[in-house]
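Summary for the funding panel

The consortium committed to producing paired sequence-structure records for every protein in the target list. Below we show the first two records in order, beginning with the earlier of the two.
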Amino acid sequence: MDKTVVRDVPNKLTRSLDLFDDLDTHAFAELLGAASDAVLVLSPNGEIADLASGNSDFEAVHIADWVGKPFIDVVTSESRVKIEGLLSDVRHRSQTEGRQVNHAIDPQRMVEIGLGETLPVVWRLVSLAGLEGCVALGSSIADTARTQQRLVSAQLELESEYRLLSNRETKFRAVFQSVDLPLFILDGNGKVQDANSAALGLTGKDQDKLVGTSALDLFVEGDRAAITNQVRTAGAGQSGGLALTQLQGSTEPVHVSLSPFREHGAIHFVATITPTSEGVGTGNDKSTELNIDALPEAIVRTDRAGTILDTNERFLDFAQITSGGGAVGRNLSGWLGGSHVDMSVLLAQLHDDGLIRRFSTTLRTELGSILNVMVSASMANHGDNAKDLAPPQIHFVILEARGADSRLIVEPGSAMSPQSDFTQLVGRVHLKELVRDASDAIEKMCIEAALRQTGNNRASAAEILGVSRQSLYIKLKRHGLESFKG
């Protein structure tokens, strides 16, 4: 068997050195420039005597202005110790190991370069015979940094999408399990994929034993043909109607209704089982009434002036209130909106139209933090006839806003439409409050636009807005934009 011959590769040229005998200084300088992204000629005390660069990334750090400056002064503060180490090492050896340092990027070029605030460069110092100082060879790793940023952004986006999907799954599970009617999720072949607590109680089976079995096995054998026909009819997009059947081990007849839906190109069904003794479609079945404390949305019921009558637990979590008694009797404007203007807008629109959909505002907690929320509301009477003189009440549904939901979504021309310029609120809200609220809204929109334009770079956003970075952070906190991602 042949043995592999391993030879050491020399770390410098040793053969035919006479080939370089006719190499002049200009050619040598061109060779150095071609060998790296940037070349610095350093004096013995570390000042930059000359330089060259063929990489456009270095224009963003104004490399042309480095001549005459100490090498240690053109890097960021945390990189100065690395430059000191390089200059010390080159005095004892012909060349140093590469060290990554950072150079501050011109704020006006940050968006163009797409790196944030610094340009990362790996520098190696080489001492040459006959040269009093040394030569610094720099290689930009900006492309690597950009790739890493894209990977981080992609990871954050995936995590955000995962949280969104997880929240939707939680909402579905909360509503699905809180309904007292037995509900089954079936695939196109009639096999059980999911069932709520009421369905498990009706069948007397555990979730693990029920999932994956045929739904036909739940019914008496003589009625399975009718159920099969109902599945076929509903899957064809026709109304399956109600099938009167009987469950295994039960003598009480039940109605079965199927509602088809599509998922990933396949037909699935929601099967609802209703005991005949409770009636079907009357709309008065108390067993279907939801427990609002089980819902993931914040629910608040107020009188027509906004005074809270009751809430669910989710609102108490949002507002960080320790008990329901801490909210009842107080006006919702104490938490909802940046000022009383938002609540005035909501109440005015409700009194005019009786309904609000997806109104964007903020919710202030008892501990001082601010959440971006979407509010839907409706005006309702608790009376079934004209003789009932119960006062009107307002039902509010409050959800935490994300992404595009943080913007106001209203019908054109309504009292809250941006085109109306708040003119329809004149007479309902004091001018001072209108002006202050409009100013806050404009300031928030400008900050959001600056963050989008700069790729969410806070330093660049402060620069183009003409404010200090500290002032921008204060405004971000006041408008609830601390976690804004553009």
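The next record, for a separate protein in the list, is shown here:
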Amino acid sequence: MAEEQEAVVEEQEAVVKETGAVKKGLGDAGAIVKEGIVASLKGVSEIEAEIVSLARNTVANTLQATGDVATESLNVTTSVIKGAVQATEEMGSGVIMGTKSVAKGIIMGVSDVGGDLVTAAGQTTRGAVQTASEVGLDVAMVARRTVDGILEATTEVGGNVEKVAEKAVVGAIEAAGNIGKTATIAVTDILVGVAGGMKDVLNAVLPKPKEKEE
């Protein structure tokens, strides 16, 4: 009888040890994944910061070199955002996230040299949407990421977020309108949250179906 009880106790102890080992293993697995994700996100943040810095310095330096911020900012911002979208095409659609960082850098660069943020915002979204269409990327997603970057930068530099947001959204929708009805609907839908209370603005730039039919 004593031997049987000892055997039962030993079996229970083995189960407890095994269960503990499994739990520890699961804990280790969770820790490994957690640490990997944190490290990856840190890496992504560093890359995004580098892209912002690259775009910012490129825009600011180019505009300073031309000596004509008011005139050249349109050309420079368009050129930079197009380069970013084209890079996305070459590197894969996953890099589409980078358009936000580039847009942010553009606005900060324009701000550094005292340029017009509102005008730059509209030109940046137009260039992004147009180029996204040309290279076959998700136009709506590019528009959203671009607007997100513009608004983030505007907030950080203390610009007029409302006016910049309006111009950015209008620029994106107008560019989509040149592409087609499907693009216009997709871009409008994804930017509705950004537009907030700008229904009048959206109505003004959206194509009128009845007028198109006549």
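Regarding this second record: The two ends are 99 Å apart (CA to CA). The longest helix spans residues 2-66.
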